[in-house]
Amino acid sequence: MGLQLASIIITSIFTVCKDVKDCISLAADSIGLQKIPSFEVAMHDHTDWIKATQELFRPVEVSDGLWVVPEWTTPPDLQATNIILNPGLAFGTGEHPTTKLCLLLLRDLIRGGELFLDYGTGSGVLAIAALKFGAAFSVGFDIDPQAITSAQYNATLNNIGHEKLLLNLVPGKGILPSADFSSSMDIGQTTYEAEVLNKRGKYDIVVANILLNPLLELADQIVSYAKPGATVALSGIISEQIPRILERYSQYLDNITVSKMDDWACISGLKK
């Protein structure tokens, strides 16, 4: 009997202004594919899929007493820690294993009063969760303006103000925040906000739930925001990619641990 290879089909959604081939090329490169997979493009009314996506997003019980709840749904447990969310076009509904792993890690780590950095914030779910768990202040970075808009909206849904959560868009294609934040500052940003966003070596917890290649390429930047002894957590990777992350980050982190869920992984350690 011959070996039969399984076919994997991925459906993704793009705005009409996006270069689909370029996006697929970047995605393929991020997971080490040697060539771009074959693909087809079909045009649809964007209002239909947004509504359909919302209908599929239901309350997620991450663990006992911890729920991620869509804005349009009543929380199943009003006494629980409920993170109210409308992800819009951003990543992070609480359903994906990497998000769950990061949420569980934050719940165990945060004791109260921490300064938290969400490196690639998406919907803002982790930055918001950190505050609900007791962190004193959260900062979220992302390269996607729609993610920043989504995270700001979700902060409002959870009654979290600007004094507790700062969200910053860093311009550039295929990169996350760099050492120079001056070019990414909004005109209305205060000196205090600029100082917070530029803090290196000051965060008690830094989480980067992104993709393998950015995690590898930006390791020194990601770790630079954490203070010595702080926890740095890395996710958005599958189990077979763990050795590459361990090799890259072992120079920066001690006491490295790995947690897994459905073949996805979260790696955390203490900054040396």
From TrEMBL:
The keyword Repressor does not apply. SUPFAM superfamilies: S-adenosyl-L-methionine-dependent methyltransferases. InterPro entries: Ribosomal_L11_MeTrfase_PrmA, Ribosomal_PrmA_MeTrfase, SAM-dependent_MTases_sf. CDD domains: AdoMet_MTases (cd02440). Keywords: Cytoplasm, Methyltransferase, S-adenosyl-L-methionine, Transferase. Belongs to the methyltransferase superfamily. ETFBKMT family. This is ETFB lysine methyltransferase. It comes from Datura stramonium (Jimsonweed).
